[in-house]
């Protein structure tokens, strides 16, 4: 096997804080993606979002490279691996555009010396560029999915709970895939969110017996609720606290963000305008451009999330135990990190509340110094 054609070969990451040596950075489509939009004003607004997103990603890449990190960039034509976009009508009709692979963390997690792909593949292709060396990649339930398509098994090994939104997953798809951010690595221990899949810990540990696990219930995307910047420190949202970690991370300091300031000053009057998009997404142009709102709500529903719920001060990327990257200055978090000897570095991402993702979402750490450790002796 010729490893030279792959950008990601041998991987190594047992936690989220050891010195970062290689990282994957997501990407969005080129502005030309919307060139065929007939309305010139709408076309310009959509292309502006893509152009400014790519510009900010370029700057994030430079920041990482200046810190000595090798950055592997997804190509601008890479798509997310969660399948087609379905209409809100519930009749199964496909409607909308494929989602760019801007947030690789949704679909992949590095577990020691392997990258686990947690998403469902319809075409058997990992991506257009083959950035992953197959010997380092583990595709979840690939064999089971092929058997399902042949009618040999009724569903996959995962057991969805009632917490799963039926509009987000069909009943069979949710048995074959899960959100990668439902898992946090802490050396030889995994913290697994089991709110959406009741047997997720069992399935992962059967596949990766080198780990032990501890369960939490946060809601699937735990990297929007908690962050582990260094051994012994947890940063979490106001709905969590020390009692949530007394068994999961015993003895660790818990930095709880009491006043998260979810929507910062650059969002202007969004607090009074959020009814326009039901709190799901935001750009400065939304209020004065109903055509943009209508287009996004009808054709780009898979591109946006639920920005009103997101706290990006938690969704950070540690470069090492003394350095962390964030998209947003928030005094409460900044001062606490400095107190713990961590230097925050801030990167601009103007449309983070359109894409609904922070720096942790935008990246996937593939190589960190160090190896497996027991942090709970």
Topology:
Layout: E1 20-25, H1 40-66, E2 70-73, E3 108-111, E4 114-117, E5 137-139, H2 142-149, E6 183-186, E7 189-193, H3 200-207, E8 212-216, E9 226-230, E10 233-236, H4 242-245, E11 253-256, H5 270-273, H6 290-299, E12 317-320, E13 323-326, H7 331-339, E14 343-346, H8 352-355, H9 359-362, E15 363-368
Parallel strand pairs: 1-2, 4-5, 7-8, 10-11, 13-14
Antiparallel strand pairs: 1-15, 3-4, 6-7, 9-10, 12-13
Report what the structure shows.
The structure is a single chain. With 377 residues, this protein is an alpha/beta fold. The chain has a single domain, classed as L-arginine/glycine Amidinotransferase, Chain A, CATH 3.75.10. The protein contains nine helices and 15 strands. The protein has helices at 40-66, 142-149, 200-207, 242-245, 270-273, 290-299, 331-339, 352-355, 359-362, and strands at 20-25, 70-73, 108-111, 114-117, 137-139, 183-186, 189-193, 212-216, 226-230, 233-236, 253-256, 317-320, 323-326, 343-346, 363-368. Strand 9 (226-230) and strand 10 form a beta hairpin. It is globular, with a radius of gyration of 20 Å. The chain starts with 19 loop residues before the first strand and ends in a 9-residue tail after the last strand. The model is unreliable at 82-94 (pLDDT under 50).
């Amino acid at each position: 096997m010729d490893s030279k054609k792959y950008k990601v070969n041998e991987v190594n990451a047992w936690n989220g804080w050891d010195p970062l040596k290689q990282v994957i950075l997501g990407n969005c489509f080129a502005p030309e993606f919307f060139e065929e939009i007939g309305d010139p004003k709408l076309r310009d607004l959509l292309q502006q979002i893509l152009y400014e997103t790519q510009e900010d990603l370029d700057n994030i890449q430079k920041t990482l490279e200046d810190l000595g990190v090798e950055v592997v960039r997804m190509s601008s034509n890479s798509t997310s691996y969660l399948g087609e976009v379905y209409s809100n009508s519930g009749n199964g009709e496909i409607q909308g555009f494929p989602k760019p692979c801007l947030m690789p963390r949704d679909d992949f997690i590095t577990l020691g010396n392997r990258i686990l792909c947690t998403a469902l593949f319809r075409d058997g292709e990992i991506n257009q560029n083959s950035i992953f060396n197959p010997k380092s990649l583990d595709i979840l339930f690939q064999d089971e999915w092929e058997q399902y398509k042949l009618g040999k098994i009724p569903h996959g090994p995962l057991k969805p709970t009632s917490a799963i939104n039926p509009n987000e997953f069909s009943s069979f798809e949710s048995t074959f895939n899960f959100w990668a951010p439902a898992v946090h690595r802490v050396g030889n221990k995994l913290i697994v969110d089991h709110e959406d899949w009741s047997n997720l810990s069992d399935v992962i540990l059967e596949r990766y017996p080198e780990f032990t696990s501890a369960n939490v219930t946060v809601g699937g995307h735990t990297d929007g609720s908690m962050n582990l910047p260094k051994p012994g420190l947890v940063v979490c949202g106001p709905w969590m606290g020390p009692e949530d970690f007394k068994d999961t991370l015993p003895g660790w300091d818990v930095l709880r963000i009491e006043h998260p300031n979810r929507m910062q000053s650059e969002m202007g009057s969004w607090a009074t305008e959020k009814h326009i998009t039901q709190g799901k997404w935001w750009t400065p142009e939304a209020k004065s451009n109903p055509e943009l709102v209508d287009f996004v709500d009808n054709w780009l529903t898979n591109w946006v999330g639920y920005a009103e719920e997101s706290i990006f001060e938690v969704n950070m990327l540690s470069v090492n135990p003394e350095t962390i990257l964030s998209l947003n200055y928030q005094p409460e978090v900044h001062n606490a990190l400095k107190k713990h000897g961590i230097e925050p570095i801030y990167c601009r991402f103007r449309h983070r509340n359109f894409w609904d993702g922070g720096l942790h979402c935008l990246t996937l750490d593939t190589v960190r110094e160090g190896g497996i450790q027991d942090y709970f002796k």
